UniProtKB/TrEMBL annotation:
CDD domains: PKD (cd00146). The lineage of its organism: Bacteria, Pseudomonadati, Bacteroidota, Sphingobacteriia, Sphingobacteriales. Residues 29-107, 200-265 form the PKD domain. InterPro entries: ConA-like_dom_sf, Ig-like_fold, PKD/Chitinase_dom, PKD_dom, PKD_dom_sf. This is PKD domain-containing protein.
Amino acid sequence: MTTKFSLVIYIALLGIFYSCKKENDIERLQADFVAESEVVRVGEPVTFSDISTGKITKWNWKFEGGNIEESVLSSPTVVFEQPGNYEVSLEISDGRGTSLLTKEIAVGYNSIEALFEADQTIIIQGDEVSFTDLSVGLIENWKWEFTSAEGVVMTSTEQHPKLHFNEIGIYQAKLTVTNPDFSDVEIKENFIEVLDASNLSVDFTSSATGTYEGQSITFTASSVGSVNNWLWEFEGGSPATSTDENPTVTYSRPGRYKVKLSGTNIAVTKEKVREGYISVVPGDQLAAYFPFGGNLNDVGPHKFVPTVKGTVTSAGIDRKTYENNAAVFNGSSGLVVADHAAMNFGTNDYSVSVWVKTTLTRRMMIWQESGDQGSGDNQTWLRLGANTTSQLVGFATEDSDGGSFLGMSEAEKGKLYDNVWHHVVATRSGLKTTVYIDGVKAKEVTSTKGIKNVSNGGDFKIGMQRGATSDSNYFDGMLDDLVIYNKALTAAEVAALYNF
């Protein structure tokens, strides 16, 4: 055998070898795949993983019933949206050939959770309630049951039923949801309360019970039972009437005004009337107004928010017998209003008006401006009970050059410890200081030491006295409608405040 012939034979055998090897490689390209979960459920993502053999360069998946129809990823994730049997196929390629495998995948129902809500839960007899199914999962059947304590039962198989409750009572609500594989129940005890249409009461609250002329107050209606229509009547207000549930009203004139609210349903109309509920003080040179209705804050132009020392509440019953409408002081507490130009009276005229109710005769401060350094400091104050004879009420103006003091006996109408509401106004006009009791001038004195400079950097105190070393002379009782003006009120203006 020649060398040339041997080479030809070798090349031929080598070609046969590589040809057989290529054929064997193609045979080893075999499509196969698995799902990550043996149980595939609706709505739950499932990842399919390629476990094919061969040198794969391309994947082509097809998913019947899936949220994606095709994928070229090696391990795609699919969500099946309906239960059933679906074909999943994988075709793989190595660039020379392909392999295809199709499997049938069973998709079952998922677990479910019963949830629901209602558009209202307290209704009038005969009203309709809309129920909304909020259940989670693929649900095929709904069963609603509403059972009263008296044994009345109402049912529905709708997903979102609307039902009229014609029998008075308190109802349990029960929702059962099912699919072929799962079920769940939610029960809400005492969920629907059906009231007698004639059993209706209405009430209201307000953002404040006092303001000054030109300002507004917002009112909020409330009721026990269903109200179809509201009608407000605002004495002295604008608008004078309103059908809004929560109207805002402007008061342009000083006075004390009635508020009336009527609520109507299919059976009855009920009313709530509060006589003299809103107090509107004059706004001319107003520094602050603390009506103490529902809170302790100022509603005047500066909106002061006092710091509470100890415990002071607005839970008192005012002179119109309205609850939560007067400040209550316990004999160891007070309010502090931070120093402000509006209450730095200096040598100017001013007035402080307040309603007072107490049973005690001991020394108690109603209010104090400045005076933190004690005697001889710039200050002015109104005090009760320094003694039981000539100083049942005391009104002072003082500075480093001495003071001017007005003391009142019982004969001068200074007796205020009778557990009755009394209106006390202290004014300064130049050299004159005056105290009015219950709308009438009770006593007036003229300073013999000039006009006192009554203010410095000290705070304004309510219901307490601040001295050089400690606080003292705490008020014990109730205060209401404390109003401060940067002018001396006239007798007519004082009488008007008293008659509010």
